[in-house]
Amino acid sequence: xxxxxxxxxxxGAGPAGLLLSHLLARAGLDSWVLERRSRxxxxxxxxxxxxxxxxxxxxxxxxxxxRLVREGIIHHGIELRFGDRAQRIDFEQLVPGRNITVYxxxxxxxxxxxxxxxxxxxxxxVSFEATEVGLTGLAAEEPVVHFTVGGQRHRLACDWVIGCxxxxxxxxxxxxxxxxxxxxxxxxxxxxxxxANVEPSSRELVYALHERGFALHSMRSNDISRFYLxxxxxxxxxxxxxxxxxxxxxxxxxxxxxxxxxxxxxxxKNLAPLRSFVVEPMRHGxxxxxxxxxxxxxxTGAKGLNLAVADVxxxxxxxxxxxxxxxxxxxxxxxxxxxxRVWRVQQFSCWMTxxxxxxxxxxxxxxxxxxxxxxxxxxxxxxxxxxxENYVGLEHV
Length: 397
Ligand SMILES: Cc1cc2nc3c(=O)[nH]c(=O)nc-3n(C[C@H](O)[C@H](O)[C@H](O)COP(=O)(O)OP(=O)(O)OC[C@H]3O[C@@H](n4cnc5c(N)ncnc54)[C@H](O)[C@@H]3O)c2cc1C
What we know:
By secondary structure, the protein is of the alpha/beta class. It has helices at about 15-25, 40-45, 55-60, 65-70, 90-95, 105-120, 240-255, 305-325, 330-355, 365-380, 380-390, and strands at about 1-5, 10, 30-35, 50, 75, 75-80, 85-90, 100, 125, 130-135, 145-150, 150-155, 160-165, 180-195, 205-210, 215-220, 225-230, 265-280, 285, 285-290, 295.
């Protein structure tokens, strides 16, 4: 058994865990990150790509924004398509000075790992392929994380343990059952995600509601396009040949005269369920949760990664205040402050999901109401402004 010690033990090397460890290191606080997957696996996972300005600012201020600023693509609007209409939601007009940046989550993860392993904080450890992760000592406020790497058991004594291990992690189970409440909703469809080696067909993201279901045209760079198709939750990925994917995307997206979809080699396909989940509170004693470990929002609003960054921003400030001034105030407020934003974002993400997907239970009446709602967003400045405000990110929550 190897005996180790650190101030902050962090479970999970996704964006939340890596960014937290990086922010702490910049404040002179040591931490230890445990990740159950390999570095190669973590760096190759394709997921989010839309960053709010506040997330970009956080990454830049943390010194890991150089490539993001160079390669990220700033967008000043998105497009909604429904019926035979295309309506641009113009951020410059509706929320002047605010926008989004398209930059892949895996690029953020690579930048953070690079900063951690090769930068001035290279001495800060990340243990990849850590298994059998467990926690003891929480009741006595002397937490110890146990884990195995390369067949050897380790015992890591910490002041604080932060669960950043995503929705399928273990740390949420360490909260006591009594006093903890969870809220969950599973949507009756999933997203088939497609990464393709083809120049985007649109300069901005296109969100489409079609008779056959939702489709989203996004991008990761000037050469790589990202698409999502609403499919049934038990869909068999093997049934989706490349030809079928392009035909379905063309059918749902190319509904506007003069617009056509560029096609090319498909690099990756995956299925993701759409769900909402929140655990309250996000703290028990010396254990705190951040990011997807504590909350999931349906991906339609492009908010999960942004919420994870917002949690970590608060948490790093709270831990720094505790270590430098002995002040527990921010740590005590952490859960409540995060949850205020989480529920606002949950509301927006669910609203956008309801607006843009075909719900199997909807009858003809509901479908007409849905189109009327889209019409209201498209034609009312107040409606479009509300969408734009939420999409670029809530500033004061
Ligand atoms: C299809 C899709 C599209 C999305 N699009 C967007 C978007 O455009 N914008 C946006 O903001 N968000 C988006 N999201 C959401 C976003 O990807 C997540 O919110 C984000 O990954 C959360 O980061 P995290 O660090 O909290 O969790 P994760 O990224 O899930 O990281 C958790 C880490 O913990 C590790 N781990 C798990 N269990 C253990 C364990 N027992 N021990 C040690 N390590 C463990 C995992 O391997 C993982 O590396 C999307 C998600 C999906 C699925």
